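Subject: Acyl-CoA thioesterase-2 structure
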Amino acid sequence: MSRPPESQAAMDQLLSTLDLEKLEENLFRGVSPQVGWQRVFGGQVIAQALMAAQRTVDGDCFVHSLHAYFIRPGDPAVPIVYQVERIRDGSSFATRWIVAIQHGRPIFSMSASFQVEEQGLDHQVGMPPVTQPDKLMGEKEFKELFLAQAPAAVRKYWNQDRPIEVRPVSLVHYLTKEKLEPRQDIWVRAVGEVPPDRHYQACVLAYLSDMTLLDTSLYPHGTSIFDPKLQVASLDHAMWFHRSCALDDWLLYTQDSPSSSGARGMTRGSLYTRSGTLIASVAQEGLIRKRADE
C-alpha cells in the first residue's frame, strides 16, 4: 500500500525514536522528535520502554502484556534513559521491569511479560458493525472543514505531520458540546511502512494505543482534552497483545468509558483488523481535573 512521501517521513521519524542507543547492559537511551510539544507523548514513552525491554529477551519471545504508570511529564528536549531489570527468564515466559529516567528522576515505570509462541484455546468477541474507513472523511478534508475555527491547541495538534492517521466514525463531538454516550469508534492507520519485524510492530501498536482514549471519558461531560479549563494527562496504561498484525491497513479502535470519578476517567479499548480479528485490548485511566482557577 503506497503512502505519500511526507507520511513516510513521519513514520521514519517514529521508527528512528524506537532505535534506542545501548549505553550499557540493560541500559538504553531514547530521544524525542522536536515537534514543539511541552511534554513527551505518552505513547512514545510506552513504545520506547517496550523496545528497551524487547532488546533484553530472546528473539522468539514476544510481548503479550504490559502495565505502565506515568509518574512525571517527560521533557522532549532531554533524552530519556531506560533501565531494564530482568525479573525472570523462564522456559516459556520472561518478565521485565522498565524505568524511564530524566533529570535523575523516574518519569515512567512499566512491567512487561513475554511468551514463546504456543498453541492453545482460541476465541474472541466480534468487531462491532461500523462504517468502513474508505467511506469516512479523511484528515485533509477534516482540516479544511473544521480547523479554521478551532482553538489554537486543536489546530496545532491536527496540523502536525503524524505517523498515525485517525478517522473517527462519528464527528459529532467536534460539532457540539452536547453530553454524549461514553463510547467511540475510530479507524487508525500507520501512514508509512512499518518493518515486518514483530518487535517494531508491537511498539508501533503500543504507540498508537495511547491515542484518543482520554477523549472518550470526557464525552458524557460535553468537553474534550482541548478544553483549556481542564488539566488532562494519562495516569496509567495497560495493554494485552492477542495476535500479531502487520499494520499495513486500517485498524478499528473501539472505546468505551465505564466510569469517571475522583478527577479520573477510565477507558477501555479494543483494536481490530479491518477483517475483524481482535489483535489487542487496552485499558487506561487519566487525570481529568478542573483547573484551580476555574
